[in-house]
Design goal:
Blueprint: E1 8-13, E2 17-25, E3 31-40, E4 44-45, E5 48-49, H1 52-69, E6 77-82, E7 88-97, H2 107-116, E8 126-138, E9 141-144, E10 154-165, H3 166-178, E11 182-188, H4 189-197, H5 200-205, E12 207-212, E13 217-223, E14 226-233, H6 237-248, H7 252-262, E15 275-278, E16 287-290, H8 291-315, E17 327-330, H9 339-347, E18 351-353, H10 374-399, H11 405-420, H12 425-431
Parallel strand pairs: 1-6, 6-11, 12-17, 17-18
Antiparallel strand pairs: 1-2, 2-3, 4-5, 7-10, 8-9, 8-10, 12-13, 13-14, 15-16
Helix pairs in contact: 1-3, 4-10, 6-7, 6-8, 8-9, 10-12
């Protein structure tokens, strides 16, 4: 009899929307959607929670809508995305001399090597969000993807460390907890989006994921199967809307409608004699807005965002010859007309739209195939991978007889740590003795 998989919930706290998606892995390894809720976001600016009360209300509304889509759901913990201009990344190197060199390298040694990187010095007020190993070395053997099973005296790795402002992280945790939930894990939004729209072939070929959200544009760069770089660009769709509002002297709601219905990222593609008629305010005569002027404003801001992308790619030495998979555009802002052409012109890379249906099970809501839900779906997908790792660790710790003396010493410590963190009932049945 097939064991029922745990339900994983992704919570995307964005500048313009808050989305909650509940799902679990089916027998084919795909994400089966069990619930979906959406709410407008008012307390978030440029990806950062500023007004906690408004954010709590928006989270509660999204959860209410998620429960309405499936009344049988029970949601206690969520995987939450994090972004904002406070996000930084750095490269470090970590090495560890093994205590017992006769045995093959075990998982607990790799876990210890990764855990040691959380002691890396970072500026005061910042906090390490994630430590991602890139490639390992064992003695003089380099570029190892997985060192488990190798033998050697010293094991090391290059790491990509992601940090964020401690107060910004605290505001997210507080908002979620006051909404009656527990944060299972914080994940960088571009990595979550990447999980939703790309495949293993994309990672091997080399690819850049560009998630154009409301408040920020998130970048993740992969090459030869390794995460090479992440960045958060502090401009997004809201900036384009505000540019239109200021440049054309219209209301923000009118600017957003014009952007969505008539906007183009290429001014040369807009018709010279095309105009948009908008009603006047409080009895004033109506106005006509040039579609070409609208496109010029949009192109200026998108060109600035793409200039940041080019800068980051050059910073890590990945020019247009290195990323054979090109750039994948996702997020709500990726739906702008002619954005693919502008991206290819500005970066010299092939570009396409990334739809978050790469790992979705059949018979899902067609609404969820829109790029704007890539982060939330990716959070659920990454949560499944994380849960699978926890299950494996539980089985290892609770059910295995350790012959290695160092592992035997670590066992009670690991048991205590796991017991201090709630484990879903579907996982506990594998762990308890």
């Amino acid at each position: 009899m097939t064991q029922e998989q745990p339900i994983i919930v992704g919570l995307d706290i964005g500048t313009t929307k808050i989305a909650a998606i509940a799902g679990r892995k089916n027998e084919f390894g795909k994400l089966e959607i069990l619930g979906f809720g959406l709410a407008s976001s008012n307390g978030v600016q440029h990806g950062m929670v500023l007004n906690i009360d408004q954010t709590i209300k928006a989270i509660e509304t999204a959860l209410k809508n998620c429960y309405a889509s499936n009344p049988g759901l029970e949601i206690n913990e969520v995987y939450v995305g994090i972004a904002g201009h406070h996000i930084k990344s750095l490269q470090t190197r970590g090495d560890m001399v093994r205590r017992i060199t006769d045995d093959e390298i075990k998982q607990f040694e790799i876990d210890q090597l990764i855990a040691d990187q959380y002691k890396t010095y970072i500026p005061a007020g910042d906090q390490i969000i994630d430590v991602i190993p890139q490639e390992y070395t064992v003695d003089n053997i380099q570029n190892i993807a997985d060192p488990i099973g190798y033998t050697g005296v010293k094991v090391g790795a290059n790491f990509h460390i992601i940090t964020g402002d401690r107060n910004a992280i605290r505001n997210i945790n507080r908002s979620v907890e006051k909404a009656g939930l527990r944060v299972k894990d914080l994940m960088l939004q571009p990595l979550a989006s990447s999980a939703a729209v790309m495949s293993e072939q994309d990672i091997e070929a080399g690819i850049a994921i560009l998630d154009i959200g409301g408040g920020t544009t998130d970048l993740a760069v992969f090459h030869e199967g390794i995460l090479k770089h992440t960045a958060v660009i502090p401009f997004g769709g809201e900036n384009i809307t505000n540019d239109i509002k200021m440049g054309l002297g219209v209301l923000k709601t009118q600017a957003e409608l014009m952007k969505v219905q008539y906007g183009s990222a290429l001014a040369d593609a807009a018709q010279n004699n095309a105009f948009i008629k908008i009603p006047g305010l409080r009895g004033l005569p109506s106005r006509e807005i040039s579609v070409k002027n609208l496109a010029s404003i949009i192109q200026a801001r998108m060109s600035e965002i793409l200039a940041f992308v080019t800068f980051h790619l050059k910073q890590v030495g990945l020019d247009n010859k290195m990323l054979n998979g090109g750039i994948v555009l996702t997020g709500g802002g990726s739906q702008l007309k002619h954005l693919i052409q502008l991206t290819e012109y500005a970066t010299g890379l092939n570009a396409r739209i990334g739809y978050p249906n790469e790992h979705l099970a059949v018979n899902h809501l067609s609404e969820l195939e829109k790029p704007m839900y890539a982060t939330c779906i990716g959070l659920s997908s990454k949560g499944i991978i994380s849960m699978r790792t926890i299950t494996s660790v539980c089985i290892l710790i609770y059910n295995r007889s350790f012959s290695n003396p160092l592992e035997a010493v670590l066992q009670p410590l690991l048991r205590k740590r796991l017991k201090s963190r709630p484990i879903p009932s579907s996982v506990q049945k594998h762990c308890l003795t």
